[in-house]
């Protein structure tokens, strides 16, 4: 990583964050009110991805562990400590507070909505309520936090591109495994992604704005 930040046009992030926040609020309303559209949405997606191949299910089971709370928390702590070590204090505050805020909000909404999980395979264990998907929120938020850090700290374009592609693949694949293993409704995963997008977009806007202000004060 290079400590000299790249310039970023961050203003659209405020619009994106606001749009995802509104959509997430609307999605929460649909879930809470048990709107028939949600059941139709879940049924269509489940029918499209249904597959009982034991090898693929086992691979999905192993991969989904990368998005659990423990793994995401450990990785975030290591990331924040590394940023502090590199004296990238604004970056460290951004990463830690964004992850804490998104996951705390997710926990609150879970306990308010109290949506039950789908009927699960006994070989797959999952605790707590279903909406929003914690794996989806955590992986999406972490992926976009990493993308924001990659954009400002990595200068080599090929490296930057491949890292960003992997971050996108990571969060989408984690969400897919939650549906594939039938531990979450598809609407849980979509809701989790939107929540993560809302928090990370707004937080990234504040992050880039803080860096811009810092660079202007210390050209």
Description of the molecule:
The structure is a single chain. With 219 residues, the protein is mainly α. It has one domain (12-213). It is 75% helix and 0% strand. It has eight helices and no strands. It has helices at 12-32, 36-49, 54-64, 69-85, 89-113, 134-153, 157-180, 186-217. Helix 6 runs parallel beside helix 8 (186-217). The longest helix is centred in the last third of the chain and has 32 residues, at 186-217. The chain is globular and about 55 Å long. The two termini are 20 Å apart.
Draw up the topology in text.
Blueprint: H1 12-32, H2 36-49, H3 54-64, H4 69-85, H5 89-113, H6 134-153, H7 157-180, H8 186-217
Shape: globular
The H/E string reads HHHHHHHH
Average pLDDT, rounded to a whole number, is 88
Instruction: Give the percentage of residues in beta strands.
Output: under 5%
The secondary-structure class comes to: mainly alpha
Strand runs, count: 0
Main β-sheet: number of strands, strand sense, barrel status?
Answer: none
The number of helical segments is: 8
How many domains in all? Answer: 1
Catalogue the unreliable spans: none
N-C termini distance:
20 Å
Radius of gyration of CA atoms, rounded to a whole number: 18 Å
Instruction: Kindly state the percentage of residues in helix.
Output: over 70%
Protein name: Membrane-associated phospholipid phosphatase
Organism: Lactobacillus delbrueckii subsp. bulgaricus
Domain Phosphatidic acid phosphatase type 2/haloperoxidase: 92-204
Keywords: Membrane, Transmembrane, Transmembrane helix
């Amino acid at each position: 990583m290079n400590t000299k930040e790249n310039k970023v046009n961050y203003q659209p992030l405020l619009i994106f964050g606001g749009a995802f926040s509104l959509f997430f609020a609307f999605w929460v309303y649909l879930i809470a009110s048990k709107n028939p559209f949600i059941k139709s949405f879940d049924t269509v997606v489940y029918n499209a991805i249904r597959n009982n191949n034991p090898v693929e299910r086992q691979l999905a089971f192993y991969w989904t562990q990368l998005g659990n709370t423990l793994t995401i928390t450990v990785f975030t702590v290591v990331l924040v400590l590394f940023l502090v070590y590199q004296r990238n204090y604004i970056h460290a505050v951004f990463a830690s507070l964004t992850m804490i805020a998104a996951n705390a909000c997710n926990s609150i909404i879970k306990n308010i909505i109290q949506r039950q999980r789908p009927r699960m395979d006994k070989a797959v264990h999952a605790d707590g309520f279903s909406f929003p998907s914690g794996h989806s929120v955590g992986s999406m938020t972490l992926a976009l936090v990493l993308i924001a850090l990659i954009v400002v700290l990595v200068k080599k374009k090929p490296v930057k591109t491949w890292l960003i592609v992997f971050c996108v693949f990571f969060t989408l694949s984690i969400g897919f495994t939650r549906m594939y293993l039938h531990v979450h409704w598809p609407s849980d995963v979509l809701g989790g992604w939107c929540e993560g997008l809302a928090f990370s977009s707004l937080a990234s806007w504040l992050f880039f704005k803080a860096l811009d202000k810092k660079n202007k004060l210390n050209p």
